[in-house]
């Protein structure tokens, strides 16, 4: 197996792991999945697969949005706990 295939298979495993972490409500999943989406964008751009590059741009946007929403939710919960104490 060539180096590129090993890289893309490893990236596939990491992407699935990131999605799994998201499904388990783990914030780190957004980071893992986001890094993978950036890597997939680079892979597709290097191969001229522009439609899929567009897809990964959307996914990257979802990652950023999810991270921001999750962080805001954590901050609100922390403020509620502090106010209740």
What does this structure look like?
The chain has 85 residues and is mainly α. It has 3 helices and no strands. It has helices at 3-23, 28-47, 50-84. The protein starts with a helix and ends with a helix.
- What is the number of independent domains? 1
Q: Approximately what portion of the residues adopt beta-strand conformation? A: under 5%
Query: What is the number of helices?
Result: 3
- Mean pLDDT rating: 94
Structural class: mainly alpha
Given the C-alpha coordinates, what overall shape results? elongated
Blueprint of the fold:
Blueprint: H1 3-23, H2 28-47, H3 50-84
Helix pairs in contact: 1-2, 2-3
Features:
3 helices; 85 residues; elongated; 89% helix; mainly alpha
Concise structural overview:
With 85 residues, this protein is mainly alpha-helical.
